[in-house]
């Protein structure tokens, strides 16, 4: 979520502290429904590295699309270019994937792009620029891609270091540590 593999361990900041900061009090106040909804939304924002206004736009787009709003929201967030690069194993974390895209190392359908929030579609091909293949990020990504667990909605050719989006992710294809339906409740007020 925040630092690659760290959030899959007990050291994750979201799971680490059961008590609030400050002096230890003998009783704990009940957290309101609004606070729980806000916490879930913030988890989603921090997971995907999205700012508040952009997240609101993703929510409005998810509402506009047919189907379940929470699943649409997760699908939109998963289809971001920086997230797809992270899922393909080209980067350790989403923030590193974002940096790889911003530095111009990535080709989307044969064209250089430096927009990490670009939404990919089924059939899109993601690869490395030829001039980037002798640089350090590519060499690291090549080693990581060999042991990467690529989701079923993506396809990775480790020899050519080219990934393909086979289909949009389904509801079970995300490894979200948050509940999208609670985020929908947050925005429904």
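^ structure tokens above, recovered residues below v
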């Amino acid at each position: 979520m925040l630092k690659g593999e760290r959030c899959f361990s007990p050291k994750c900041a979201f799971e680490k502290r059961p008590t609030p900061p400050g002096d230890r009090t003998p009783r704990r106040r009940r957290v309101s429904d609004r606070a729980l909804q806000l916490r879930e939304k913030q988890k989603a924002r921090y997971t995907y590295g999205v700012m508040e206004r952009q997240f609101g736009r993703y929510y409005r787009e998810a509402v506009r699309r047919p189907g379940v709003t929470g699943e649409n929201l997760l699908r939109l967030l998963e289809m971001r270019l920086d997230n797809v690069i992270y899922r393909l194993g080209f980067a350790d974390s989403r923030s590193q994937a974002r940096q790889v895209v911003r530095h111009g190392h990535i080709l989307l359908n044969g064209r250089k792009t430096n927009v990490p929030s670009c939404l990919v579609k089924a059939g899109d091909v993601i690869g490395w620029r030829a001039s980037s293949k002798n640089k350090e990020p590519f060499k690291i990504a090549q080693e990581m891609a060999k042991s990467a667990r690529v989701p079923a909605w993506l396809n990775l050719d480790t020899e050519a270091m080219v990934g393909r989006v086979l289909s949009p992710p389904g509801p079970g294809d995300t490894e979200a540590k948050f509940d999208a339906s609670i985020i929908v409740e947050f925005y429904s007020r």
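The radius of gyration is 18 Å.
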